[in-house]
Design brief:
By secondary structure, the protein is of the alpha/beta class. The chain has two domains: 190 residues, Rossmann fold (3-Layer(aba) Sandwich); 106 residues, Rossmann fold (3-Layer(aba) Sandwich), CATH 3.40.50. It is built from eleven helices and twelve strands.
Amino acid sequence: MKSDISTYWQGVASGARTSTQDQLATMFLLPFGFLYSLIQQMRAILYRIGIFKTRRLPRPVISIGNITVGGTGKTPVTAYIARLLMEQGFKVAMLSRGYGGSLEGQNVIVSDGATVMLGPGECGDEPYLLASTLPGLMVVIGSDRYAAGQLALQQLSPDIFILDDGFQHLSLWRDLNILLLDCRRPLGNGWTLPAGLLREPPGASSRADIIIMTRCPAGTSISRDTPGKPAFASTHQLVDAQPLQGGSPVSFSALIGPGFMAFAGIAQPEFFFSGLRDQGINLVHTLAFPDHVAYDHARLEEISAAMKESGAEYLITTEKDGVKLSHLSPDIAAVTYVTRLDIGIERPADLLTLLRNLLP
């Protein structure tokens, strides 16, 4: 029931549902949206005039974030930019809240760039995924990102910070503000929460220095001055799958035929499912969990039961989910695949130049 309501709201708030009933639902929520918008505008003003304080770290900070809820493919973009900077010789530390982990809110080092010290249950799935798949990336969690940055400075000595999901984290100064917008519906239906997907009014996008449009169709090119800001198109594509228990990646063409059950605990899982179908995977059943789901005993039993009921021969899921499946029974783990996602951003040389020029 809760999942059905969430799915319906996502459709209305994104602008995908436009029937008379859907429009009435939006109108009912609009007063709350106006109030939320006013609160966010006042908050931004109080930071701008100095009533709320913004603190500055002594190293450049790149913020990567969204203006909408519901997922824009932020994690792979963050990984792409971190890798781009590390390839130039920079020591990069990512500052994250650690959402969903048992240590959320505490200032803790997840990885020093060589050793991952915490698991996904402690630091959250996204920090763990980035720390474990990007050798050299330092990761620190903490609700106070300034304090987390100070911890990183004292113990890790990074050259550059990446502020994860930082567009609304105005208490920390950033030298470069990167805003991610979904290419298909950049602003949803245009309204703020709860009437729409926006965390802030659309005008807040003026704070961005660079805009990256995510999940664009292959071949998309974005005007270099849209809308008065440097802008880039990015594509997200599933490239292959790896057995959960280890081994070499397997091409999707080798997986065509048998029945798969796909499951995911991410924002907008339907795009993951459709991506698998585009690769020719025979999906006999799909199972969507809340974003940042914890795969406890009950969830694992649900997966096992759904697999049996659907008649699926194999399971397939995302990297973000795969790092949390250590307690999956051996017989189920043996038939589970974890997909790998590749991201491309147009004009990477131009993006690197902007990163260098806009940083002090």
